[in-house]
User: Fold Helix-turn-helix transcriptional regulator from Kribbella koreensis.
Amino acid sequence: MTATIDETFQRPVGELLRGWRERRRLSQLDLANQVEVSTRHVSFVETGRSKPSREMVLRLAEHLEVPLRDRNQLLLAGGYAPIYTEASLHSPAMLAIRAALRRLLKAHEPYPALVVDRWWNIVESNAGIALFTEGVSAELLKPPINALRLTLHPDGLAQRIGNLPEVRASVLTGLHRQVVSTADPELQDLYDELRQYSGGERTDLAAAAEVVVPLKLRHGDHQLSLLTTIATFGTPLDVTVSELMIESFFPADEMTAEYLREN
Assistant:
């Protein structure tokens, strides 16, 4: 069972660090070698026999690849002030980030591209997103629109996906990795919800036949084939920016490219 945020704040920093180490499948010796401290020191920190300094909390968090949001929680649990800001994407401080994202999205047209937050809610998109929203239930288009729910919901894009079992398996596998990596209860809830949607299971034969799973999407009388990539910001120091993901779709064949350019 995943701890709530309130429960996290009540837990000692050593216990939280141990949880992250175990989540990364590292032994105390592995972590000690990476951080260049003794195994004894790691053990004392985890059991509460030694209070880690602010710098040690950050060093351990960095080597454990703890997300910035959770690094702030570790600092709070250790008795230190958070160091990473968390500005709203619509705040004046984020003006340059928003402008850069919109230029990037615009430049990708006519192909679809969108920006999602940690929970896969769409925060920005270009005109190409109409390819995905056409014909879906109005309920799924109420803000915030969740990209994964939009994809796999029976009243969403799923009804037009020609290879739904493969796409479903790919989405669920990726989301499960994210749940394991972050231990985020909201992502766990989303994963549990998406698993309940119909769509079939990918067979071993289908899994072996694909190097990359394309999105085979019916649009009118055409079947389009799209590949997707995910990009993130490098070396972010703000929680919001660190959690943004830019998903860009590319035509997997010339027929799809020509169709999207002309429509």
Q: What stands out?
A: Residues 164-182 form the longest helix (19 residues). The two ends are 48 Å apart (CA to CA). DSSP finds 14 helices and five strands in the chain. Residues 1-8, 204-208 have pLDDT under 50 and may be disordered.
